[in-house]
Each structure stands twice: as structure tokens, then as C-alpha cells.
Amino acid sequence: MTLPDIVGLIGAVFYLTAYALLQLRVLAVEDSRTTLLNVLGGICLIYSLSCNFNLGSLVTQVAWLFFTIIGYVRFRMARTRMGG
């Protein structure tokens, strides 16, 4: 197993952990730990894909990362406007 494979697996664990914790209601979507797990998962998987390229997977990972960051920024901005 190569380093990119290991990093990709770690990324998958981050994604799956975030998803599981959301589904089990341990974390909420608004929790920064959920965002962190998704961002780390995306970065790890994009790194892995840079060594073992797959266009479909790369597009999916970049989109997932983009939507995660946009959602988090929008949440933080709304919270700031509300005084929280």
C-alpha cells in the first residue's frame, strides 16, 4: 500500500466519521467538528487522487469540499448577524 492510498483511506475515515456522527446525532451540521472532518477528508482524498487520478472522483471531492466551506461560511455569517 502506498502513501497516497493510506492518506486516501484516512480521508474516507474522516468522511465516514462525520457522516456517522451526524446520523447518530452526536454532532450537528452546525458543529465546526463536522466541517473539520469533511475538510480533512476532502484534502486527504484530493491528495490521494493527485497520485492516482480519477476525474469523476476528483470532481466529486472538489465539489464536496467547496460546498462544505460555503455552508460553514454562510452559517458563521448568519450567526454573527444574529449576535451569536
What's the short story on this structure?
With 84 residues, the chain is an all-alpha fold.
Q: What would your notes on this structure say?
A:
The structure is a single chain. The chain has one domain. The protein contains 3 helices and no strands. It has helices at 3-23, 32-51, 55-81. The radius of gyration is 14 Å and the shape is elongated. The relative contact order is 0.15. The model has no long low-confidence stretch (mean pLDDT 95).
List keywords for this structure.
84 residues, mainly alpha, 3 helices, transmembrane helix, Cyclic nucleotide-binding protein, transmembrane, CBU_0592-like
The helix fraction, in percent, is: over 70%
Largest sheet: none
Instruction: Estimate the strand proportion.
Output: under 5%
Strand tally: 0
Helical segment tally? 3
**Whole-number tally of structural domains:** 1
The rounded Rg comes to 14 Å
Mean of pLDDT: 95
Question: What general outline do the C-alpha atoms trace?
Answer: elongated
- The low-confidence runs, each spanning 5 or more residues with pLDDT under 50, are none
Task: Return the string of H and E elements.
Answer: HHH
SSE class: mainly alpha
In angstroms, what separates the terminal alpha carbons?
Answer: 46 Å
